[in-house]
């Protein structure tokens, strides 16, 4: 984008610098920013994420803490399937995209229970029975210390 030339005077005509109008400067800045964003995707994983992805990210974090899945329970937990259709996940009909139930009973899973489950704020049913999940969370505290975050869990 051409900028305006700054001359040293009418008699000499030598260019001593360049100045740009605010509009030209803004166009240049936007072009540079666009290039930075495009080329940055080569270094950072770029993806389209749903507008309210808190529940999906909580489930992914939970899955990453599982070290053993002998029955292949998590086979459906991938990008080609909406997280509301993942095994053991039931989303609310009234709160679109929000996890209402997380049922992992009897899957013989091994690993730790991720604190991110606390981000499933409308969760009503959480069944982790018949698995080998540790009784300590990532912060080293007992499960009971953070289970109170689930205000909507039924009894």
TrEMBL record:
SUPFAM superfamilies: L domain-like (SSF52058)
Signal as UniProt keyword: yes
Keywords of the record: Leucine-rich repeat, Repeat, Signal
Protein name as annotated: Leucine-rich repeat-containing N-terminal plant-type domain-containing protein
PANTHER family: DNA DAMAGE-REPAIR/TOLERATION PROTEIN DRT100, L DOMAIN-LIKE PROTEIN
Top-level taxonomic group: Eukaryota
Keyword Disulfide bond carried by entry: no
Lineage: Eukaryota, Viridiplantae, Streptophyta, Embryophyta, Tracheophyta
Ranges of residues in domain Leucine-rich repeat-containing N-terminal plant-type: 53-92
